[in-house]
Amino acid sequence: MISVVVAAPPVPADYFGNMVLWAFPRMRARDLLSASYAAVVGVIRDAVARVDAEYVQSFVDFGEVAERGGEELAATAPTPGTAFCPNLEVDSWLGFRFHDLDFGGGPPCAFLTPDIPIEGLMVFVPSCAAKGGVDLFMALDEEHVHAFKQICYSMN
Predict the structure, then answer these.
(1) What is the pLDDT of residue 151?
(2) Which of 99, 88, 151, 102 lies closest to 125 in space, CA to CA?
(3) β partners of residue 35
(4) How far is CA 81 from CA 116, 140, 155, in A?
(5) Which long-range contacts (CB under 8 A, 24 or more apart) does 107-115 make?
(6) Taking the CB of residue 55, how many other CB atoms lie within 10 A of it?
(7) Which of 11, 41, 82, 149 can bridge 78 by disulfide, Cβ–Cβ 3.0-4.6 Å?
(8) What does the pLDDT profile of the chain (156 residues) look like in tens digits?
(9) In 10 A of CB 3, how many CB atoms?
(10) Nearest Cα to 134, choosing from 94, 102, 103, 75?
């Protein structure tokens, strides 16, 4: 998922509503496991770059054509209970500045994502416990825990 604020130019000023555009970086699992971090980042960067001003405008135009035709657009976000297995969706909230929030009592001591009812969805968030650290929230069916542990490792 890409925030449309990265589009240049951004979403048209007269657009009102929510807009979620998906970037789809893709690699085969065997390529991902053997690739360098630079190669993986390059695949992600290329997918994000394809969500450009032309793509944003095409999305707006598509919505307008559907609206004029009396059509209702279908949501593309997964519904609760969806399982991405064997695929994963990885979202990074690392750019959100949660630690800068202060409603009068100081910064938050923790940050939790809302309920994640979609198996295979991973969300990276800045850690409140470890300065500069990263916390990961993930929904995973019990039957997939062993396989997940086999393919993951610590970067410490």
Answers:
(1) 74
(2) 99
(3) none
(4) 9, 11, 31
(5) 111/135, 112/137, 113/137
(6) 16
(7) 82
(8) 444 444 555 666 666 666 667 778 888 888 988 999 899 889 988 988 888 888 888 888 888 888 888 888 777 666 666 666 667 778 888 887 777 888 888 877 777 777 777 777 888 888 877 778 888 888 888 888 887 777 776 544
(9) 13
(10) 94
Residue 74 identity: A
Token readout for 97 is 């500045």
User: Which pTM was predicted?
Assistant: 0.49
Q: Which amino acid is at 33?
A: L
Tell me the one-letter amino acid at 68. Answer: R
DSSP the chain: -B-GGGSSS-S-TT--S---B-------HHHHHHS-HHHHHHHHHHHHHTS-HHHHHHHHHHHHHHHHTTPPPPP-SPPTT-B-TT--EEEE-TTS-GGG--SSS-S-S--------SBTEEEEEE-SSSTT-EEEEE---GGGHHHHHHH-----
Query: Shortest CA distance to 129 belongs to which of 113, 107, 155?
Result: 107
